[in-house]
Amino acid sequence: MFNIGFPEMVVIFLVALVVLGPEKLPELGRALARLTVEFRRATEELKRELALDEIEETREEWQKMKKELKEPLEDASSSGSSPSSS
Protein backbone atom coordinates (compact mmCIF):
# COMPACT_ATOMS: atom_id res chain seq x y z
CA MET A 1 0.00 0.00 0.00
CA PHE A 2 2.55 2.60 1.09
CA ASN A 3 5.54 0.47 0.07
CA ILE A 4 7.32 0.93 3.42
CA GLY A 5 10.22 -1.42 4.01
CA PHE A 6 11.95 -2.53 7.19
CA PRO A 7 14.54 0.31 7.27
CA GLU A 8 11.80 2.92 6.95
CA MET A 9 9.83 1.26 9.74
CA VAL A 10 12.88 1.39 12.03
CA VAL A 11 13.34 5.11 11.33
CA ILE A 12 9.64 5.79 12.00
CA PHE A 13 9.83 3.79 15.26
CA LEU A 14 12.94 5.66 16.44
CA VAL A 15 11.43 9.07 15.65
CA ALA A 16 8.23 8.11 17.48
CA LEU A 17 10.28 6.86 20.44
CA VAL A 18 12.20 10.15 20.65
CA VAL A 19 9.12 12.35 20.17
CA LEU A 20 6.65 10.46 22.37
CA GLY A 21 8.91 8.72 24.83
CA PRO A 22 8.81 5.10 25.97
CA GLU A 23 5.70 5.62 28.13
CA LYS A 24 3.39 6.85 25.37
CA LEU A 25 4.62 4.61 22.55
CA PRO A 26 2.65 1.46 23.61
CA GLU A 27 -0.51 3.56 23.91
CA LEU A 28 0.03 4.90 20.40
CA GLY A 29 0.56 1.38 19.08
CA ARG A 30 -2.69 0.15 20.62
CA ALA A 31 -4.57 3.18 19.29
CA LEU A 32 -3.20 2.59 15.79
CA ALA A 33 -4.11 -1.08 15.97
CA ARG A 34 -7.68 -0.23 17.04
CA LEU A 35 -7.92 2.33 14.25
CA THR A 36 -6.75 -0.22 11.69
CA VAL A 37 -9.26 -2.83 12.91
CA GLU A 38 -12.12 -0.31 12.81
CA PHE A 39 -11.11 0.83 9.32
CA ARG A 40 -11.04 -2.75 8.04
CA ARG A 41 -14.40 -3.49 9.66
CA ALA A 42 -15.97 -0.39 8.10
CA THR A 43 -14.48 -1.26 4.72
CA GLU A 44 -15.89 -4.80 4.85
CA GLU A 45 -19.30 -3.47 5.89
CA LEU A 46 -19.28 -1.02 2.98
CA LYS A 47 -18.35 -3.81 0.57
CA ARG A 48 -21.25 -5.93 1.84
CA GLU A 49 -23.70 -3.04 1.50
CA LEU A 50 -22.57 -2.32 -2.04
CA ALA A 51 -22.91 -5.98 -2.96
CA LEU A 52 -26.43 -6.06 -1.50
CA ASP A 53 -27.33 -2.94 -3.47
CA GLU A 54 -26.11 -4.57 -6.67
CA ILE A 55 -28.11 -7.72 -5.92
CA GLU A 56 -31.25 -5.65 -5.30
CA GLU A 57 -30.76 -3.71 -8.56
CA THR A 58 -30.31 -6.96 -10.48
CA ARG A 59 -33.45 -8.42 -8.88
CA GLU A 60 -35.45 -5.33 -9.86
CA GLU A 61 -34.17 -5.58 -13.44
CA TRP A 62 -35.21 -9.24 -13.61
CA GLN A 63 -38.66 -8.40 -12.26
CA LYS A 64 -39.04 -5.67 -14.89
CA MET A 65 -37.93 -8.00 -17.69
CA LYS A 66 -40.29 -10.71 -16.45
CA LYS A 67 -43.18 -8.25 -16.47
CA GLU A 68 -42.28 -7.00 -19.96
CA LEU A 69 -42.15 -10.54 -21.30
CA LYS A 70 -45.39 -11.57 -19.61
CA GLU A 71 -47.51 -8.63 -20.87
CA PRO A 72 -47.52 -9.58 -24.61
CA LEU A 73 -48.49 -13.15 -23.73
CA GLU A 74 -51.37 -11.99 -21.54
CA ASP A 75 -52.55 -9.55 -24.24
CA ALA A 76 -52.53 -12.29 -26.86
CA SER A 77 -54.47 -14.71 -24.68
CA SER A 78 -57.05 -12.10 -23.67
CA SER A 79 -57.74 -11.13 -27.29
CA GLY A 80 -58.87 -14.69 -28.04
CA SER A 81 -56.21 -15.60 -30.55
CA SER A 82 -53.77 -18.32 -29.67
CA PRO A 83 -50.15 -18.19 -30.85
CA SER A 84 -50.40 -21.73 -32.30
CA SER A 85 -53.33 -21.01 -34.64
CA SER A 86 -52.55 -19.47 -38.03
Number of strands: 0
Mean pLDDT across the residues is: 85
Instruction: Give the end-to-end Cα distance, rounded to a whole number of Å.
Output: 68 Å
Q: For the report, how would you describe the main beta sheet?
A: none
Q: Which radius of gyration do the C-alpha atoms yield?
A: 30 Å
Structural class of the secondary structure composition?
mainly alpha
Percent range for β-strand residues: under 5%
**Helix content range of the residues, please?**
over 70%
**Which overall shape is indicated by the principal axes computed on the Cα atoms?**
rod-shaped
> What's the order of the H and E elements?
HH
Number of helical segments with 4 or more residues: 2
Poorly predicted runs of 5 or more residues: none
The structural domain count equals: 1
Oligomerization state of this entry?
Answer: single chain
